[in-house]
Amino acid sequence: MRAQMITSLLRARPVARRIAPTFARASSGQVHEETFESFTERYVTFFQQAQDLFEVQRGLNNCFAHDLVPAPSVIEAAVRAARRVNDYATAVRVFEGIKEKVENKQQYQAYLDELKPVREELDERLLAAARSDNEELVLEVFEQEGTFNINFQDGLGNTALHYAASHGSTGVLEYILSHEECDVDLTNRLEGATPLHLALRLGDPEIRVLVVESLLDAGANTMIKNKHGQTALSLLGPNDTEIRTLMRKAQAEANVSRDDIADDDDDEDGSGSGSGSDED
C-alpha cells in the first residue's frame, strides 16, 4: 500500500516525469529514452555497488540532477551506501535532497514513512554519539530535523539519553536535553530504569553530580520506580549528600508547581463565584 502511495505521489508531481531525460549515445549518434523503472534499477544497482565516498556522492549528484523524484528504493540504496562508506553527513543530505525535490509536505512525509526502517538505522548513530560523547556526530544528526527520533529505543529499551547519562557523555547530554521532544523519564526494558537511575551509577563523583543536575533541571522525575521498586532517591549512598540535596530541591519545586496549578484552579472557580455575586 505504501509503495503504491509513493508511486502515485511521484506520478502526480507536475514537474516529475515518468520518462527519464534522454541520453545521447556517441557510438550510434542516436538518442534513447530511459523509463522510470530502468532509471530506478540502474541507480539502485549503482549505489549497491558503490565502495567509496567519492563514488556515492557522484552518483547522488547525477541522480538528483534529473527532473524527477527518485523512487524510495533508490533513496534507501543511497542511504545504505553512505553508511557503508561511513559518511553519516551524506546519508542525511540524501533526505535533504528529497525534501527539495518533492512538491509538498505530504509527499515528503510519504517518503519518510516508506523509509522508516532505514531511518531507524540512522537513529542508531544518535545512540552511538551518546555512548561516545561525539558532539560532532550528534550535530550532524540534528541538522536534518524530521529524519530521526530523539526518543528512539533500541532492543534494550535504551534511548540516546539513557546512554548519555550512563556513560557520562556530558556534551551530547545537553544537546539531547535541549530537544523539545526529548522525554527525560522513559524507562528501559531490562530494568525499568530512567536515565536518572543510570546516572547514579557513574563512578566519577563530579560527572555524576553534573549529569544528575542536568537531568533534574530538565524535569526528571525522582519518584519513578524501576523494576526493583527503587526510586532514584532510594539508590543514593550515604556520601551522596550533594545529589540528595539536588533531588530534595527538585521535589520541593515540583510540589510548589503542583500547588500553584491547584491554586490557579481554585482562583478561577472563586472568580466565577465572585463575579456572580457582584451581578446579584
Automatic annotation (TrEMBL):
Gene3D superfamilies: Ankyrin repeat-containing domain, Cytochrome c oxidase, subunit Va/VI. InterPro entries: Ankyrin_rpt, Ankyrin_rpt-contain_sf, Cyt_c_oxidase_su5A/6, Cyt_c_oxidase_su5A/6_sf. Transmembrane segments: none annotated. It is a peripheral membrane protein. SUPFAM superfamilies: Ankyrin repeat, Cytochrome c oxidase subunit E. Keywords: ANK repeat, Heme, Iron, Membrane, Metal-binding, Mitochondrion, Mitochondrion inner membrane, Transit peptide. CDD domains: Cyt_c_Oxidase_Va. GO terms for cellular component: mitochondrial inner membrane; respiratory chain complex IV. Residues 261-270 have a biased composition (Acidic residues). Pathway: Energy metabolism; oxidative phosphorylation. PROSITE patterns: ANK_REP_REGION, ANK_REPEAT. One of its GO terms (biological process) is mitochondrial electron transport, cytochrome c to oxygen. GO terms for molecular function: metal ion binding. Residues 271-280 have a biased composition (Gly residues). It comes from the Eukaryota. ANK repeats lie at residues 156-179, 191-227. It is found in: Mitochondrion inner membrane. Residues 250-280 are annotated as: Disordered. Component of the cytochrome c oxidase, the last enzyme in the mitochondrial electron transport chain which drives oxidative phosphorylation. The respiratory chain contains 3 multisubunit complexes succinate dehydrogenase (complex II, CII), ubiquinol-cytochrome c oxidoreductase (cytochrome b-c1 complex, complex III, CIII) and cytochrome c oxidase (complex IV, CIV), that cooperate to transfer electrons derived from NADH and succinate to molecular oxygen, creating an electrochemical gradient over the inner membrane that drives transmembrane transport and the ATP synthase. Belongs to the cytochrome c oxidase subunit 5A family. Component of the cytochrome c oxidase (complex IV, CIV), a multisubunit enzyme composed of a catalytic core of 3 subunits and several supernumerary subunits. This is Cytochrome c oxidase subunit 6, mitochondrial. It comes from Fibroporia radiculosa.
